[in-house]
Design goal:
By secondary structure, the chain is α+β, with helices and mostly antiparallel strands. It folds into 2 domains: about 140 residues, no CATH class; about 150 residues, Histidine kinase-like ATPase, C-terminal domain (Heat Shock Protein 90). About 55% of the residues lie in helices and about 15% in strands. The chain has 11 helices and 11 strands. The strands form 3 sheets. Strands 6-8-9-11-10 form a 5-stranded mixed β-sheet, with helices on one face. Helix 1 crosses helix 3, helix 5 runs antiparallel to helix 7 and helix 9 runs antiparallel to helix 11. The two termini are about 50 Å apart.
């Protein structure tokens, strides 16, 4: 996907998300306002009925309520009428003498100050008789805000949950598109690299065969031996390349299993190092073998351990800009066999070291990948080590070479 398309999609989503939040905020405030109005209407209707019953001698109050007024029954009547009108919270109730500015009754004396300031004030006349004093029933709802918010919170939470889901799905979609683009790019690079990697030994083998057809060369036993050796080495190189690709693909299967048996790691190193003598000598390099591990027998899959050693040495040769100087060493460390493959090549940056064992990842030299490879060699090595319950580490500095350290249980 082109960069401007991704920017456009992200911008549209951001605008839509912000708009949704603004609309939801406005709608929440509007809902809260409607609930507030409905609450006030409900309280008003309830108190109208309470006052109607008081005026109809339902409670039989006298002109002076403090003498005969049943305050407990007044509380019950108010709560009952509030429930009838859909309000399930208990208010603080006060009976107030407006002329004398004093409370005749308060269900909670600690809230008398709030009662005086409450807007829920209703005038009434005991037993329907107009008296010389002004009497008021005052209600205070300390938890009214909570009541109103409770009716609105469901929609707020639901909207927030939906916004989070949409945002999460959008991020997942973007990451999927980015990963798909990365996979397409890696697939193209892999095909190109594989084509070049296989064409090189094929061309070398073809040239060696042409030389062997020359009678003057074919009659020279030494020359014939050299060309046959070249063909054998290039064939071995192609075999390892193809085997690495096939085995790497197989290892992606969770049901993949190795075939472990007792193998001598020193014998494998000697065998693999022999196949690299010619390409290293052609570049005026050297391969140092320092085998100190005793014992050197491990329980492992011989094929995969062989490919592991081959890939590590081949990696050191590839990333040596001048004459390769490769050292392969073994020793016993804390009851485990440690294999080190060191080179004095270009080294690996700190950023590349984080990804060097990822599939298809290739360390770049400068701004381009000018080293041949598939980007699966080190990933294959890491998978082999994991299957053998071992550990692999990398020590490297730019311009000073790299050392791969593989630890295997004996």
């Amino acid at each position: 996907m082109k960069r401007w398309i991704r920017i456009f999609i992200i911008s549209v989503f951001a605008i839509a998300a912000v708009s949704l939040v603004v609309i939801q905020f406005y709608q929440t405030r509007r809902t809260f306002s409607i609930n507030d109005n409905m609450f006030n209407v409900g309280v008003g209707n309830a108190m109208d009925e309470v006052i109607r019953q008081l005026g109809g001698n339902a409670l039989q109050p006298s002109e002076t309520p403090s003498e005969t007024f049943n305050y407990q029954e007044l509380d019950s009547l108010i709560v009952e009428q509030l429930l009838v009108n859909g309000i399930d919270i208990h208010p603080v109730v006060g009976l107030y003498n407006g002329t004398e500015r004093s409370f005749l009754y308060s269900s909670d004396p600690q809230h008398e100050q709030q009662l005086e300031e409450s807007p829920y004030r209703y005038s009434f006349h005991p037993a329907g008789v107009v008296s010389t004093s002004q009497f008021f029933i005052i209600l205070s709802f300390p938890s009214a805000q909570l009541f109103l918010q409770r009716n609105s919170n469901l929609f707020v939470y639901l909207s927030f949950f939906l916004v989070v889901i949409i945002a999460a799905m959008f991020i997942i979609s973007l990451r999927a598109m980015a990963n798909q683009r990365k996979l397409d790019q890696m697939k193209s690079e892999f095909i190109n690299n594989m084509t070049h990697e296989i064409k090189t030994p094929l061309a070398t083998i073809g040239l060696a065969c042409e030389m062997l057809r020359d009678e003057t060369i074919s009659q020279d036993s030494e020359s014939r031996k050299n060309f046959i050796g070249i063909i054998n080495d290039e064939n071995q190189r192609m075999r390892v390349l193809v085997e690495t690709i096939l085995q790497s693909a197989k290892m992606s299967n969770k049901n993949f299993r190795i075939n472990p048996k007792e193998v001598d790691i020193h014998q494998i190193i000697d065998k693999v190092s022999t196949s690299f003598k010619l390409p290293i000598s052609n570049r005026n390099g050297k391969l140092t073998i320092d085998l100190q591990a005793d014992p050197s027998v491990v329980v492992a899959d011989e094929l995969h351990i062989t490919n592991l050693v081959y890939n590590l040495i081949d990696n050191g040769i590839k990333y040596s800009s001048e004459a390769p100087d490769i050292t392969v060493s073994t020793r016993i460390v804390e009851g485990q066999l440690e294999l080190r493959v060191s080179d004095h090549g270009i080294g690996i940056s700190k950023d590349d070291q984080k990804h060097v064992f990822e599939k298809f990842y290739r360390v770049s030299t400068g701004n381009v990948h000018n080293v041949k490879g598939f980007g699966i060699g080190l990933n294959y090595v890491a998978q082999v080590v994991k299957l053998h319950h071992g550990h692999i580490a990398l020590e490297s500095e730019l311009g000073q070479g790299s050392t791969f350290i593989v630890t295997l249980p004996l």
